[in-house]
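Structure ticket #2291
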Amino acid sequence: MTAVMNRRDLEFLLFEWLDVTALTEHEYFAEHSRETFAALLELSEDLATTYFAPSNRLGDTEEPRIADDGTVTLPAETGAALAAFAKADLLAAQFDGSVGGMQLPLTVFQACMAWFQAANTATTGYAFLTIAAANLLVAHGSPEQVDAWVRPMLAGETFGTMCLSEPEAGSSLADVTTRATRCPDGTYRVVGTKMWISAGDHGLGDIVHLVLARTPGAPAGVRGLSLLAVPKYLPDRRRNDVVLTSLNHKTGTRGTTNAVLAFGDGTHAPTPEPGAVGYLVGEEGRGLAQMFHMMNEARIGVGLVAAAVGQAGYRKSLEYAAVRTQGRSLTDRDPTSPPVPLTAHPDVRRMLLAQKAYVEGGLALVLRCAMLVDRLRTVTDDRQRRRLGLLLDLLTPIAKSWPSQWCLEANSLAIQVHGGYGYSREFDVEQHWRDNRLNPIHEGTHGIQALDLLGRKVVTDGAFAELAAAIRATVAEAARIDALAEYAEALDDALTHLSHVTFLVTEPEHATAGLANATLYLEAAGHIVVAWIWLELAIAAHGREGRFYDGKRAAAQYFFRHELPKVSAPLDLLASHDRTALDLDPRCL
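Resolution: structure written out below.
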């Protein structure tokens, strides 16, 4: 079986680049060491290889279905894999010891999760959502809610979902119509329909839905939304009034159920008051702000999924290209000579190198963001905390969207390397492309991330300056290394260009045109950020010998010579305040 991740690469990123072991000098992470981190990486590789990867294709071909009795059926292998994951305490790994966690740095945990996402992203999705829901409840729930739901979640007995979208309110959460009415006993009754709910129903264990709903008299828009925890079963084990009405049939990640849920339609009606029983999390009217705690974590997690699935396709196309023979070298005109491996062809090497640059750069970007989260936990200086927070907030939409776009492109290149075989179901790479195609859509579409970056994050006082300062510090370090001076100069020029355009498109008189072209800004800024990441990786590899480090240098060279130049045209177009899409009459389409 082809390895879907490269353990050596993870070790390089954690120990040689990010120096994650330094976190153990802080009291919170003091129980850990490089040895415990390495052991968890090895455990994750073993579990992902043993339980998750073998059933990846099975989950794709045997999609969840609704049985005659209304229950959802999944392959037995899905439950077995998640049970092994829970038994290894990986659900609890990143949580505080007070709730039974390991207090593992998020950076290390994300590296561990990369193995599972690459091996079987559909099955891992159940754990991914549960961890995010538990994090939200720990941050905003009451001690009683933590005891009731978080502890069972971390034990693998209860699973979590996030219920935002509705049939008529997808990304526009201001239009949510689900209602939550307070009862005299302090509980709420929730009535409405939620759609696109990943892991919305299954037979793996209990479920707690985190639901955005509007209370009576709440103002219109997102400020009127509250967050409710709605369990599938009440404490006395009566069935709550939450009903699976249908399953959505997706192009990829088919092994994760995707549901339409009716809350309070009267099917079960556990109490005289109509509606599903819900429990308020935090305060009324604070639902979206609380949900963003889960969503921001999930957005970085989506970047990890995209990079990991991209990595799986890259590893498989690399192995295929090394053994598949076809054609002859550019200088060999003898038709009787033996065919050569695909890797002998420069254009195939180009496609493989592009994949390497995308997937390894994307993974490094996600781990950089995770390291910022860990540093925010350990830093004590308020000024430094604010600076780190600004940088993390600005990088989050990029960390979600850049891997979702370019690691998907890596999967497309993996198909291309396989040729016609890549377009057939007999090889895994077409499934990896389908699995990855969801990531530019969910947890905020590509365009929404662009609006968030340009319309909110960039204009936050001091945020762009923090990013620019971090990039220029790396540029200054690289400029002192002769082999990297070319890249340092190119990145400095690109950052100067981005800084100038950022000023132009955020001027009040041009803000509307800027937002209309926000996707151009996101993609250009993303490429510049990943160039920064690759320059840091090149610095970490400098002076080290061996094919592994030669590969890092080759990928950095590719990115700076082939990818970074792509930012000039979109930045120039942004600077012109182009109104093509803004002024277009939709009737002309």
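Closing remark: DSSP finds 19 helices and ten strands in the chain.
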